[in-house]
Write a structure and sequence with these properties.
The protein has a single domain, classed as Carbamate kinase. 37% of the residues lie in helices and 23% in strands. The protein is built from 8 helices and 16 strands. It has helices at 17-27, 39-48, 64-88, 111-114, 125-133, 159-170, 196-204, 211-224, and strands spanning 3-7, 32-36, 55-56, 59-60, 93-97, 104-108, 118-123, 137-141, 144-146, 154-155, 174-178, 185-186, 189-190, 193-194, 229-233, 245-247. The strands form 4 sheets. It has an 8-stranded mixed β-sheet, sandwiched between helices. The two termini are 31 Å apart.
């Protein structure tokens, strides 16, 4: 079973993460891809460099200076820290960004609104499949190559969006979006299952906020692209395959 697991910034600091990913690798060697975010780390670095994080419609407005900060935080420290933790527990992890070998290409959004921000357009599947065939676990930063090149050759892409695009390209059986909550909370209770329409309603009605909005949008993209199921949950869900909120094209228990 091909699995794409996207790990948010906060779960990356949990000591249980690397052992859980190691267990996932052992159970299905050659079929695990890890994508990571790191928004809090980016925001902290922005403050150190004298700028502040600005978000519009849930996307980080990105200047040229911010791009360098994002590269440092995501493709640099976050990526290599996670790779080191995985290698330390016996996982043959290799760290790359979407820029490497144009692994992930993105289409720029409105420059005057978002700056250097994009949405996934294409995945270089051959690179990922080559790494998987060699028994490696790709650990991927979502920083991407622009389809337009030129002065906007690099784009900031949301990690959930990147993970969904990679899962679709690989036709993965599962996309797991690892957060710091057990699932999608409705009235304080994790929903067991949602349909794509449920996800859209939660976003449109304002029930889902912040990072959860991005996850639900990414889940819809993955399902519509052929991924069998998407789960949103915490680190424990990496090993517990029935844990968290499960999204499929078919079923729903959302009231």
């Amino acid at each position: 079973m091909t699995r794409v697991i996207k790990v948010g910034g906060r779960p990356q600091a949990d000591p249980d993460l690397a052992p859980a990913l190691a267990a996932a690798h052992r159970s299905a060697a050659g079929s695990l891809v890890v994508v990571h975010g790191g928004g809090d780390e980016v925001s902290s670095l922005q403050q150190l460099f004298g700028s502040a994080a600005v978000f519009r419609e849930g996307r980080r407005v990105t200047t040229v200076q911010d791009l360098e900060i994002i590269r440092m935080a995501l493709s640099g420290s976050a990526n290599k820290r996670l790779v080191s933790a995985l290698v330390g527990v016996g996982v043959p992890a290799i760290g790359l960004s979407g820029e490497d070998a144009a692994l992930l290409s993105a289409t720029p959004l409105e420059r005057d609104v978002y700056g250097f921000v994009g949405v996934p357009a294409d995945v270089n599947v051959a690179v990922i499949e080559h790494l998987l065939a060699g028994g490696l676990v790709p650990v991927l930063s979502p920083v991407s190559r622009s389809t337009e090149g030129g002065d906007a050759a690099t784009l900031n892409v949301n990690g959930d969006d990147a993970a969904a695009a990679i899962a679709v390209a690989l036709q993965a059986e599962e996309l797991l979006l690892v957060s710091d909550v057990e699932g999608v909370l409705i009235d304080g209770v994790p929903a067991a299952a949602l349909s794509p329409d449920d996800a859209l309603r939660l976003v449109d009605d304002g029930i889902a906020q912040g990072g959860m909005r991005a996850k639900l949008r990414a889940a819809r993209v993955a399902l519509e692209g052929g991924v069998e199921r998407v789960r949103i949950s915490d680190i424990a869900a990496i090993e517990q395959l029935d844990r968290g909120t499960i999204l499929t094209r078919a079923g729903s228990v959302c009231a």
